[in-house]
Design a protein that fits this description.
The chain is mainly beta and about 525 residues long. The chain has two domains: about 180 residues, Glutaredoxin, CATH 3.40.30.10; about 325 residues, Neuraminidase (6 Propeller). The chain has seven helices and 34 strands. A five-stranded mixed β-sheet has the order 6-5-4-8-9. It has a four-stranded antiparallel β-sheet with strand order 11-34-33-32, with no helix packed on it. It has a four-stranded antiparallel β-sheet with strand order 12-13-14-15, with no helix packed on it. The longest helix has 11 residues. The chain starts with a helix and ends in a 6-residue tail after the last helix.
Length: about 525
């Protein structure tokens, strides 16, 4: 590993080649068994002090590590350095890092790389000269009397180099370890400042109820989100006395760009003769906001929670959801007569098309097992309808890296999935995924970096917990789900989108009392604990 790292760096280092340094080749280097004695160290903030107690608190050894924030080899060895330091930290081995750059640059490097041991500047290279260090990274292992017992490379195995020497010291054995020459960037090489990857990121997470109570309505469900062209965030859902009640309406709330809280919701659609059902809200490629929803047109009265025949309606806003066009039926002229219609927002394809997942039929009837992807390349002026596919309901779709369409569907007791490799002309047979589902809505989106996010109930019974999972391979495999809502109650019908600032936004039904909104960055899904 070290040889390979050095080979790579030889092509990268400014002003020349990698230098290999052994004891014999290091003119002026300390000898094995030589006592270092007191060392003057300069903190990253500037003040200096003298380190002269090498057995403090029973310490059996000290590693003096010469590192560089600008050295590619040091960067490539960061995880190995962290591992060895942490592995023997409780065995009373202290690491002391000596950096080549300014205090601020060294601190940034250590924080982003997760190095949790003391680091110091060496502005006059006094420490380097005392040890005769030649390259970065290069280490010196001192015993409790400050005698040098190992000098050279960190090594890539516990059986060689530094780690073997530490183990021998820990067991109070004579150290008979082959001293592996350090290979890296010569100290003093003029390297440009480089971008340091932050291995641990910055975790961002917030959540709130969008409202507590709306006069005249008590039960709420089926929320959906969009980011407007002006940066405002809109959330839409239906609410009334109960699900499918005569007084069920669509309610819209706005969170202005840069603000933390949501404005008071307002009813925008629905009547006692034709109540509003499942809606979605989305923004097209020219900044217009669309609302699609299922208008219940069947005979009334109807029981609580019944779907019944519906007609998919739509309206458009050209001023970020403040005013709207007249409501019109959607889909009929494209050959699709829809039942309940919509549940999940569309996704943008690499072709420039927008793909909208729908439930419906090409003839009369209401069959949620008939599903379609409708695509538009002109922001909704015309639509192309995919071949139908079956196997579940309320589909959610993303485009994989290879251009295929990947669909996951609500089902029981497991989420079903299907693939189209020809843009929706044909579909594979729907097969079970490895994720459970209690016959409740799911939502999926692809992030700008290609990672996929799925929000779902990770259970085959009930609608709690509500979970979020990430896939790095287009939904072929999923990381262990995290829990958004672990408590009793109903947490369901999520919507998930990514806004232009990279943040992930999720809305969902919160116990049917209200709608909850969660905002996070992707780091929240990945980094559970900082090194400390």
């Amino acid at each position: 590993m070290v040889n390979e790292l050095s080979r790579r760096v030889g092509k990268m280092v400014l002003f020349g080649c990698v230098l290999s340094v052994g004891l014999a080749a290091s003119a002026g280097a300390v000898e094995l068994g030589e006592r270092i004695g007191p060392l003057e160290l300069t903190t990253l903030d500037g003040p200096s002090f003298v380190m002269d107690n090498y057995d403090m608190d029973g310490r059996i050894g000290t590693v003096i590590a010469f590192l560089s924030a600008r050295c590619p080899v040091t960067g490539q060895m960061a995880k190995r350095i962290n591992y060895v330091q942490e592995e023997y930290r409780h065995d009373d081995i202290l690491w002391v890092g000596i950096g080549s750059e300014s205090g601020d640059e060294i601190r940034e490097f250590c924080q982003k790389q997760g190095m949790i041991f003391p680091m110091y500047q060496d502005p006059d290279r006094k420490v380097r000269k005392r040890f005769g260090a030649k390259v970065t990274p290069e280490v010196f292992l001192l015993d409790s009397e400050s005698k040098v017992v190992y000098h050279g490379a960190i090594g890539d195995s516990e059986d060689v180099a530094l780690e073997a020497a530490i183990r021998a010291m820990d067991k109070k054995r004579e150290i008979k370890v082959k001293h592996v020459p350090a290979k890296g960037t010569p100290i003093g090489t003029r390297l440009p400042k480089r971008q340091i990857d932050d291995l641990y990121g910055t975790v961002a997470f917030s959540s709130e109820l969008i409202f507590e109570k709306i006069p005249g309505a008590v039960a709420y469900h089926c929320s959906t989100l969009t980011e407007c062209a002006n940066g405002d965030l809109l959330c839409l859902w239906y609410g009334g006395s109960y699900e499918a009640a005569d007084d069920q309406k669509l309610w819209l709330a706005r969170r202005k760009k840069g603000e933390r809280f949501w404005q008071k919701p307002e009813a925008i659609a629905g009547s006692s003769i034709a109540p509003a059902g499942n809606p979605i809200i989305f923004t097209d490629g020219i900044g217009r906001v669309w609302v699609l929803w299922g208008k219940k047109i069947g005979d009334r009265p109807r029981r609580r929670g019944s779907g019944g025949p519906g007609r998919l309606m739509y309206r458009i806003s050209s001023d970020n959801g403040k005013t709207w066009t007249k409501d019109k039926p959607f889909g009929v002229k494209f050959g699709v007569k829809l039942g309940w219609g919509v549940r999940n927002v569309p996704t943008w394809l690499s072709t420039g098309e927008m793909a909208l997942p729908l439930s419906g039929l090409k003839d009369q009837g209401d069959d949620l097992k008939s599903l379609y992807i409708m695509k538009t390349k002109d922001n909704g002026k015309t639509w192309e309808t995919s071949a139908p596919y079956r196997g579940g309901s309320q589909p959610t779709v993303i485009e994989r890296k290879d251009g295929s369409l990947f669909v996951m569907m609500r089902g029981k007791p497991i989420i079903k999935q299907t693939i189209s490799k020809d843009g929706g002309k044909t579909w594979s047979k729907a097969v079970p995924s490895k994720l459970p589902n209690p016959n409740a809505g799911i939502a999926m989106t692809k992030l700008k970096n290609g990672h996929v996010i799925l929000v779902f109930n990770n259970t085959s019974k009930g609608r709690s917990p509500l979970n979020i999972a990430r896939s790095l391979d287009g939904g072929r495999t999923w990381e262990k789900p995290l829990t958004l809502e672990p408590n009793p109650g109903e947490y369901s019908y999520p919507c998930v989108i990514q806004t232009s600032d990279g943040r992930i936004h999720i809305s969902y039904t919160f116990r049917r009392y209200t709608i909850k909104h969660v905002e996070m960055n992707e780091d929240w899904l990945v980094h559970m604990k900082r090194p400390n």
